[in-house]
Structure formats: structure tokens, C-alpha cells
User: Fold these one by one.
Assistant:
Number 1:
Amino acid sequence: MLTRYATDSHGKLKQKAVVYTKEEHQIPKEKIDKDAYYVVEHLRECGYDAYLVGGAVRDLIVGRSPKDFDIVTEATPSRIKKLFRNSRIIGRRFRLVHVFFGEKIFEVSTFRSIKAGSVGNEFGTMDEDVQRRDFTLNALYYDPIREQVIDYVGGVNDIKKGVIRPVIPLDRIFEEDPVRMLRAIKYSVTTSCRLPFGLRHKIRKSAHLLSPISPSRLTEEMLKIVNGGHACDIVREALDTDLYMYLQPSACAMMYADKHFERAYMEHLQELDELIAKEGDVRLGKKLTFFVYDFIASLTDWKKEVESKSAAGELYMKTWSQVRNFVLPINPQRTELEYAIRDSLRRLGVSIKIPKKLFADRK
């Protein structure tokens, strides 16, 4: 084990980070995406410090193959863009660069400053950047060239202990960005790491901070839950910590009022996770079916509707309108929500052929 030092304000050497060698972290080099390696290598060759960071490093340490490889560097977005022709700058407040290799996208960010807290938009140093990371298990940097893990915050030990520990002080972490609460419960489920009592208590106490968060950010987080293969356990944790009422308030109200609805809703989320585990890449609309089916089933006596031969178009439009309100504040792609509605109706024995004019009227 190595140690990284820096000088303090008095010019004295001070330990900044622990550096784990390949014999200690045992990350197999073959698990590093070759294109992600190239991005880091090219930045280094051009004189810029660069590392793999975040969830990919966490997954590599526990022996999983990462889905995404994020990269952090001292190079500014404009410099990164010039170094990689296959890239584009994204973001308004804090700019990032997406580097493309076919269908693969690597997010490359610049070290951020802590001058304005953990949500400021100024560029900074690696020593500052780590203090902006949300939890210790996501605050690890991996140097694939030297095959070293740089740990400023004890993240490696926290992963081994199976605990979620915040980097940012508890009195600021959720006030500065409430979405971190959703990420905390997601990490707890997906990594099998526990939320300490103090952190869980803080999340419950701070749940109301999600109220003013924009629908677009909530939609992004909700779709991660829908797509991730752990929806049942994450929703259960979100219910326990009072977060789910800000993601799906209508579903929460129905679950609180009717235990049968709650049981059916959770059983369908379990079925969704099993489907993703079995089939992997599943259309979003098909996944959304598991979230809206029980609500649609509760709307009317569908057997009678079929027997009475109700007008298909009008029946569909009424269902669409109510389902759209049910899933608020999230706003999934319209075509995928429509697919989920049709799929749910089909499961209920209702075959509806929607006139093309209905779609044209809503464009």
C-alpha cells in the first residue's frame, strides 16, 4: 500500500490518500473497456492527468463488470473536445464531454472545485473533486496505466464492510442535492451495502426536499429504477424512507389505502426484475406495463366494457388520460407509455385498435 502526500498551508507534508496496488485491489486489467483505457491513455499522452472514477471503480473492486466507464481529468471540456474528434460537449451549468465509440458513450468530466460547495460549477483539482462525490464507494479513482486505486475517503474499506457512508457532511449533502437520497437507496440495494441508522434517519427527515425537484430529473431517476433490474427492492426502500411519494404519489396513495393494491403492485415489480434478469434488453414500454397495470385494472370492470362493446377510441383516450396523471410527475416517452397502456389492456382481455386519427390529433 502506498500513500499520496501533499503540503498543507504551513508547508508540511500531509497524507491525502491511500494508493492500492494491483496486488491489493486485484482488478483484472482485461475487465477495463479498451476504449475507456484509450481515452485515459490519450489524455495522459497529451499531458493531462486522467482516471476512471465512480461506479465503475466500485464494481471492479467487488468483481463485477461495469456497465459504464466514467472518466475524470484536469483537461477542460474545450481541450477534451479538441483531443477527441468523436466527441461533443454537453450540459449548460457544468459542461461535460461525451466521447463516442460506435454505440458506446464515455462521459469525461473535468475536476470540480468546492469553492461553491458540492454543487458549484467551477473547475478545480483532484483533491477538491473527491470532496464533491456523494458517497465513499463512488469516490474512488483508478489509474489503469499504473493499475492503482487512489482512495481519499476510505471507500475501499467501506465497500469491504458493506456500508454506505457519505463524503459530504450530513447537514449539507441532501440540502445541496436532494436526488442524492434516491441514489443512496439505489446503491444500498444494488451493492448490498447497508444504510447506517443516522443516514437512513436523515433521508426520512429530508424526504420533503424532493418536492421542488424538476420532473425531468425525477423522470431520469425513475427510469433508472425501471430499467435497473432491482425495481422491487428499490421501491420498497423508497417507501420505507418516504421517498416514493415524491416519485409516484398516486401509486403511494393507492398502496396506503389498499393493501391488496400494494401487494399486487410489488408482485408485478418483482416480475419485472425477473423479466430483466431473464431477457436483459426489454423495451421500456413493456417495463412500464408492470408499473401501470394494477392502476388500469382498477379503473373499471373491463369484462363489462368488452361485453358492452364500448367505443374503442374513446375508451382508450379516457384510459390514456388517467394513466398519464397516475404516473406524474415522471414524464416517460409518450410512445412507450402508450405501449404500456395497450399491453395492460391486452392482459385484461381488451383488444383496442386505435384509429390513426387519434395519434394525429395529439401531435
Note: The chain has 19 helices and nine strands.
Number 2:
Amino acid sequence: MNQSRINRVIENMRQDGLSQILVTAPASVFYLTGAWIAPGERMLALLVKDDGSAVLYANRLFALNGNVEAPLVEFDDTDDSVAILAKAVAPGKIGVDKFWPSQFTIRLMEARPDVRPVLGSAPVDRARMQKDAGELALMREASRLNDEAIRRTIAGLREGMTELEASALYLANARAVGGSGCSFEPLICFGAGCAEPHHASDDTRLKKGDAVIIDVGLVYNSYCSDMTRTVFFGEPSPEQQKVYDVVRRANEAGRAAVRPGLPMKLFDRAARQVIEDAGYGPFFTHRTGHGIGLEVHEFPDNSATSEIIAQPGMVFSVEPGVYLPGQFGVRIEDLVTVTDTASETLNAEPRELRVV
């Protein structure tokens, strides 16, 4: 059990007027207990109270007894797990994790009519938002490894290969450089597929003149990386060059704007303004970025509506893009961490226009 993290969560609970919460997302349970558990359809819950206590409720199938440094209440498949948990819950308001299945929340409400569930993810989200020195070291290394994996993948692009083959190449490279897995399924697309921000890799074959978007991330010691580079297979057209330059400058502006004490919406505005000024505003169709850490998408958003104030230790992406339907698209993504005075970019892979 990481008591210092528990204490930070409890401080956040008090700020939110919560005396008890249920932490159920596997990444958040890991963050607080050091145990990474995939519960499947079975109940998993860490009950945290403002008296400093935290008790983990878990199925015996997870084999946690003696393997987790946290007070543990176990149950079998033949037990009513919610009824066991319900006995420990205090009357009144309880914060419930946004990811807890409704089958458990509703049963808890039925078992304890004197309990009122409210959304209760924020205390843990805000604690996870600011990474400590150890977490930042792992994220720097994850990004360094991802730099190398994407470098090898770009070098391996060949005419006629499919997007799925390029994705498989990245997966092999991610393993080869030391990644334990991927943050998400690789998003690698060619040509017109690049105009779809979340295009799923398919059997489209690479040909001369194609833009190539490579949006990939690997996991290192449980922490995620995420980066996007756009390259051109053969000499790009004048418009491809123009769009690339606009997106590159937007990425630079978004990263340069990051500093502590400012609302995150200003970082989105800095990147978006470059694209709008170039006349491509309607073709930048998503937020500028997202938080990242134990999960590839974490609180908070780096978006036009985010009022979250940047604080040292936060890590998030800056990933502006321009997508011209039926033609091509360009996205350039880097991870940044907020420092005491400005920001640090975790990726070193070059951003200059590249022809392969």
C-alpha cells in the first residue's frame, strides 16, 4: 500500500466533501496498492475512508493473499461479494469510480438504501494527474524506447506493404527495444486513410506519394508512451508540404505554450490558432491532447474547454492535426511534462519533414 498516495487521495476527498470512496479501476487500484488486477466480470473495490483506512475487496481467484501489501477482504464466486462490501460502507454519500459496472452499483444501492452513490473518481484522478519523480523517470524511458521503435518502423516501410503489416512491424520493434506491450493498437495509415484521425489499420497498400501517419505507444514498467509522426513515401506534393509545415508549427506552438499556472485550454488555443490562421481550422477536428500515465488516456483533457490549471508533474500529449477528406492527413504528437518553470518534451524523434 502506498500510504503517501492514499493520503493525497484522502486530502482530495475532503476537498470534494467525500468521507468514503470506492476505487475500482485496475490502474487506480495499482496506483494505490501496487497490485495490477484484471477482474473481468468479478467485483474489485478498494474502499478508502477519510480516517486513513483503505481495504481491498477481491475474489480469491486473484491470489492476492500474501502478494499485496494492503488490508484484504476476500470472497469466493459462491459469495455475495456486494453484500460483503456493503457491510463496511458507512451511511450517507459514497464516491463511486466512474468505471465501476452498474451491476455492482445498483446492487449496492439495493443492499444499502441509506447509501447515496455519487461520481467519485476525481480524488484519484487528481492524485494520478501529478506524477512523482519515479513515475516521470519511467515515462521518460517509455518515450525514449518509443522513439527507437518508431524510428525502426519508419526505416522498415516498403512499397506494397499493408497498413496491418506496418503495424505488426511496430509491435515487433516495440518488443525488441524493451516494451512490455502497447499502450493501444497501433494506428498506422497510408494515403487517404490518413484523413481519418482514428483510422484502423487495414489492408491498404503503401504507394508512392502517400502520406504515412504512425501513431503508436508502448508500455514500460506499467507506464504508457504515445507519439505520432507523419512521413511521406516519395516526394510530397506542394499542398502536402504546406499542411505538414502548418501542423509542425502548431505542434511547436502548443508545446511552447505549456507552463505551470495556466489553464490547459490556452495550450489548445496556441496550437489551434496556427492551424486556423493557415485556413485549415475546420480540418482540425479533435482536442489537442490528453493526459497519460498508467493509461494512455487519463485525466485531464488538453482541450479548448479544459479549465484545469497546469501543475508540475503533469504529463499530456500535444497532437494537432489537419485532415483533408479523401486526400491525406498530417498529425504530429509529442508528450510533454510540466516543470517548475515551463515544460519538457519527452520525445526526441525529429519533427522535420521526412521523405522515405
Note: The two ends are 49 Å apart (CA to CA).
Number 3:
Amino acid sequence: MPAPILERWNAELIKVLKAPDVIEQLNKHGLTPLPGTRDELGRYMQSEYATWGRVIRERKITAE
């Protein structure tokens, strides 16, 4: 997908995630909105993948 389109989507998503009513609803469900850049999201996802991948391998967790 072209970068300008992705940047526009990200900008619109950030607006939504900063709206007080959206924050309130997310908080009610135990979620904390963390709007950021596409690169920040990519780094976060890589970090989570590495963390949970390690936990799964160390604990020998399998799908059942």
C-alpha cells in the first residue's frame, strides 16, 4: 500500500484514539490506547513477538 495512504490512515486513527469518549470506552475494557507512528507499532510488535516466542519455547507450550 502506498506510504501516503498508510500515513493518512495512521493520522486518522490517532485522532480517534485521542478522543475522550474512545479513551473512556477502551479504559472500561482494561485497554489503554497508545497512538503512535507505524514504525513504533512495528517495533512494539517485534518486541512482543520476541518476548512471547521465548516464553512459548522455554515453557514448551504447544497448540492443543
Note: The CA atoms of residues 52 and 58 lie 10 Å apart.
